[in-house]
Each structure stands twice: as C-alpha cells, then as structure tokens.
Amino acid sequence: MPDINWWTSLPIILLTVTPLVILLLDAIAPQRDPIVSMLLAVVGLTAALFFTLLVEGTPSADRDAFGLLHYDTLGLYGAAICLLAGILLALLSPRTVRLYALPPAEYFALLVMAVLGMVVVCLGFELLTIFLGVEITAVAFYVLVGLEGNARGATEASLKYFVLSSFSSAFLIFGFAFLYAGARGSTMLFDVWNGMVLQDPPWAELGVALAVAGFAFKLTLVPFHLYAADVFEGAPTPVAALLATGSKVAGFVALFHLLLPFQRYLTLELASMADNVAEILAILAALSIVVGNVVAVLQRNIKRMLAYSSIAHGGYMLIAPLALIAGGVRYAEVEAAALVYLLAYVLMSVAAFGVALTLGARGERAIDDYAGLGRVAPGLAFAMTVALISLTGIPLTAGFVGKFAVFNAGVQAGHAWLVVVALLGSAVSAFYYLRVVVYMYMREPSAEMPPVEGLTLVQGLGLVLATVPIVLVGLWPKLVLALLAGS
Amino acid sequence: MGGEFFGWNVILSMLLFTLGILAVLWQRNALSVFMGIELMLNAANLAFINFAQRYGDESGAAIILFIVTVAAAEAAIGLAIFLRLYRQAAIIDVDKANQLRG
Fold first, then answer.
1. Out of B5, B57, B94, whose CB is closest to A186?
2. Contacts of A297 (CB under 8 A, 6+ apart)
C-alpha cells in the first residue's frame, strides 16, 4: 500500500462526504425548501474545487492519490471544469426543484455524487477506478433523469438513458478486460500504455476499439447519440445541462488519457494502430458534426436543439486527440487547446441551459416561446445571446477562442479536411443559434405567455458566473492560455 | 497472433458478449434487454478471471467483485425504472416508450 497523500485525496473525500451530510441533515430535519441542501452542495463542490486547484502547486511526483488517481494537467483542469459545471448548475437548480416538486435533499446529494464520478473519471489512472467513476456518474444520472416522478416523459427518458448507458458501460468494461490482458495482468494506466506499445499479447487493439465505443457514448458521438435528444427533453433541465457538460468533459478526458501512447513522435511501433484509431475518430467526429448540426436546424424545442448542438460540439472536441495522434503539434499545445475548448463549452452550455430553466416551464419548451424576450426580460435575453453567440464561435467570445485553438491544432496536424467540415458545421450552426436571438429581439411577445418570474439572487449569481467569463475569456484569451502554459 | 493466446475461455466470453449484444438489439421486452446487458457484464467477468489466471495477477479476480456490485446497483435502479414505467403506462416494451419524439 503506497503512502496516502491526504492533500490529493481531499477533493474525493469532500465529494463523498457532502452527499452524506445533505442526506443526513434531511433525515434529522426534513428539507422542504432546496436552499439549505443547495448551499451545502455548493460549499462541498467549491471546497473540492479549491483543493483540486491546490494540487497544481505540488511537484509532479507527489500528485498521486492511493496510486490510483494521478493529477496530470489535463486531468486536474478537466476535474476542475466538471466541478465548476457542478457549482454553477447547483446554483441554478432551486427554481427547477421547486417548479417540478423534486425532493430537494436527494436531488442535490445525487448531483454531487454525479460530479464525484466525473472527477474520478478525469483523475483515474487505473482501469477499475475509471470504470467505477463512470458507473457512479451513470447510476446517479439514472435517478436524476427520472426524478420528476409523476411525468411519464421523465420515466421514459430515464429508461432510455438506463438501457443505452449500461449497454455502453458493458462495452467499456469488456474493452478494459482486453486492455488488462494486453498489459499482462495490470490495470494501471501506465502498464496499459506499455501493453499497447508492445502489442504482445495482441489484445490491446481490441480493447482500445471497445473502450472507444464505450466513451463515444459518453461523448454522445454519432452513431452513439440516439438517446441524447430524448433524455435531454425528458430530464429536469439542470440535469440535462450536467449531462451535456460534465459527463462529456469527463468522458473526453478519460478517452484522451487512454489514447496518449498514440502520439506520433513517441512510438513508431504503433504507427499502423494509431492510423486505424485516427481514422475511426475522424469518422466519428465528422459524422457528429454533420448530423448534430443538420438535425439541430430541424428542432423547435430548445432542449432538443441544445442536445443536437452538444452532439456537434462533441465532434469538434475530438479534433484535439486527433491532432495529437497525427503529430506535428506539441503535446502542451493540444492539451491547452482542449482545455480551453472544454472550459468555453461548459460555460456557454451552462449559460444557455441556465436561461432556459430560469424562464421556467416556458423557456424549456418551444423556440417560439422566446419571442420578444428582449423586451420582457432584457437581462436574461442578453445572457442567452452571449451564450448562443459563443456557441456559434463568433470572435470576442470564449467559444471562438476554444474553437480557434482546437481547429488550429487540427490544421497543423494535417487534418485540414476535418477542420473544413467543422467550419461548415459552424456556419450551419449559426442559423439555428442566431434564430433564437432573432426571435428574442425582433418578434413581438405573444399575449398568452405567462410573465417571467424575477431572478433570485442565487440564480442571478449562477448566470453571471457563467456569462461574464465567456466575455472575459473572449476578450483576453491570453488569461487562460498563459495560466495553462505556466503549469 | 500466437495460438496460445486464443484460449477457449476467451472465445466463450466473446460469444457470451455477442449474445448479450444481440439480446439488447433484438429483444423488445425491457427485462430481456436488461438480461442481455447482464450477460455482457458477465462476459467481461469471464474475460477478467481468465486473464487474471493466465498472468497470475489477483487483481483481475478482485475486479469481478466490483463488476458484480456495479451490476447489482444497476439492477436495483433499472428494475425500479421498469416498474414505474409499467405502473404509469402499463408498458414493458422498450419500443412502446416513445412519447418523446425519438
């Protein structure tokens, strides 16, 4: 048993204890209002975020926990981004919890558990740890998606998510079994990487293929995307937002970790296998970008539109690991590009979903319901506009910085055709994102719409914390890029 | 590819895994679909125990306990979801759960 490094274990411990405290408090003093549970969840998540970032200062050799977790730059910031998504969505949740009469303590306890799983997936450097992280997240989401007990849509979404998620988890663990064999009986990621390089016994390639299929589901890549729109529509909006952001970030980081040995300049032995993997990833990315953007145009429901847009964004993300495999770019550059993209994607998605849920039952439905919002609720309309412009990737927003960094890496690595597909996809996406903006500012509000409720302080805070950084990062991209380069 | 690595156990686990996939894709009853998923997880168990024995590593055997635990947790929640869908809409077919446009 290696020495236990308490500082690196602290975020995980905090995230484990917080849900227990929330549930215990509910058992002692039943919670009718979500505020206390929400505050506990936010405190727990913020403390975990603080201690995760604190690890940044320690030398690389001391960044292990139990030998199972390792804080490399990608994992550390990936975990931090998941925690950020958790904090923002916890702040935005109370209205949904009240509106749909969800059990408050259970809701926030499960939310923190889902984030715990994501953090474990980001930091896991051992196969079983990664799998358990995936499962903690998945099981928490099965319940969260269907928490609105009386609505059939919620139960149906929960059923679909359950069947497809456990199906993909089976692929993941079966793939891990072969990676374990490829590593000659070791589950540590470093041995697994060696197993891939040696390819003796020749199991690693099969393992990688199965694991990629498993992770592609978490990233909602086409053709593993079929559940996304239905689940997003049926789930409570903040839960859908966490699925779109945190779950995707965690899956992306774990996939990236797994594919690290395929970097061109590291291993010439792996060249043919790397080519195969790159081909599969390129096809998945291109399909996701095309299908996601085209189908999003057809959607009239805002949550379904955001679901398909998140499928397309999963495709854009994949350009980063592809650039790494193709070579021609420095590792640190790809890592920074991927992280900036993930941060931007999380902020703008949270902001868009956040506005939708703040509008209550009205904003979670048809795009037509956004008509005239610019006049009725100028602040919300502005936040939504910033989020949508950033999702489109228009300059001076975080979305542009992220896309530019990732696409730039893609071009340098010689994947110009994929970047062209991505740019065309972005052009299509401008149509459906900006359509909502046009509705908000250029149409008359319809008379029968219920009035927009005032923002509570907490929700306003959540929205401001999501939107302001989008603009800040857009105006001074050096801020984040320098932060990452300095690490 | 060395013949010694293609043990019958591995082939059996692959066969079970394929059967599980077919069950998930072809069966319409939610419980049968779930049994297919359990079959896939158990195929992974078989693969792990086989490789653990071949490479003399005990951790492979320990992993099985975790997979079984995960499968039990999934079963608990999955069956609760099936039950609630049946109570709400008297549906046990995954195809008929199509109120959301999918």
1. B57
2. A428, A431, A432
Q: Do B47 and A174 touch (CB under 8 A)?
A: yes
CB burial readout A4-26, b (16+ within 10 A) else e: ebeebbbbbebbbebbebbbebb
Above pLDDT 90, what percent of chain A? 68
CA dist., res. A14 & res. A6, Å (int): 11
Q: Chain B partners of A170 at a C-beta cutoff of 8 Å?
A: 17, 20, 37, 40-41, 44
Of B33, B85, B94, the CB nearest to A155: B85
Q: How far apart are CA A420 and CA A286, in angstroms?
A: 10
pTM for the full model?
Answer: 0.95
ipTM of this complex: 0.94
Nearest to A433 by CA among A388, A373, A375: A388
Spell out the per-residue pLDDT of chain B, length 102, in tens. 444 556 788 999 999 999 999 999 999 899 999 999 999 999 999 999 999 988 888 888 899 999 999 999 999 999 999 999 899 888 888 877 777 654
pLDDT digits (tens, 9 = 90+) for A9-22: 999 999 999 999 99
Beta strand A69-70 pairing with A64-65: antiparallel
Please check whether residue A363 is in contact with residue A241, taking contact to mean a CB–CB distance below 8 angstroms. no
How far apart, in whole angstroms, are the C-alpha atoms of residue A100 and residue A155? 14
CA distance B44 to chain A (A): 5
What is the C-alpha to C-alpha distance for residues A128 and A224, in angstroms, rounded to an integer?
23
Q: Could you tell me if A93 and A108 are in contact, meaning their C-beta atoms sit under 8 angstroms apart? A: yes
Task: Name chain B contacts of A173, Cβ cutoff 8 Å.
Answer: 41, 44, 67
Please give the average per-residue pLDDT across A234-245, as a whole number: 94
Query: Which residues in chain A touch residue B89, judged by CB atoms under 8 angstroms apart?
Result: 152, 155
Closest among A368, A356, A385 to A445, alpha carbons compared = A368
> B47 to each of A392, B35, B92, how far by Cα in Å?
45, 18, 32
A163–B33 C-beta distance less than 8 A: yes
> How many residues in total does chain A contain?
487
Instruction: Say whether A234 and B73 touch across the interface (CB within 8 A).
Output: no
Q: How many interchain CB pairs under 8 A, A with B?
A: 130
Tell me the shortest Cα–Cα distance from B73 to chain A, in angstroms. 8
- Residues A120, A137: Cα–Cα separation, whole Å: 9
For B74, the closest of A146, A156, A166 (CB atoms) is A166
Distance CA A464, CA B39 (A): 48
Residue-wise DSSP of A412-460: HTT-HHHHHHHHHHHHHHHHHHHHHHHHHHHSPPPTTSPPPPPPPHHHH
pLDDT at B1: 42
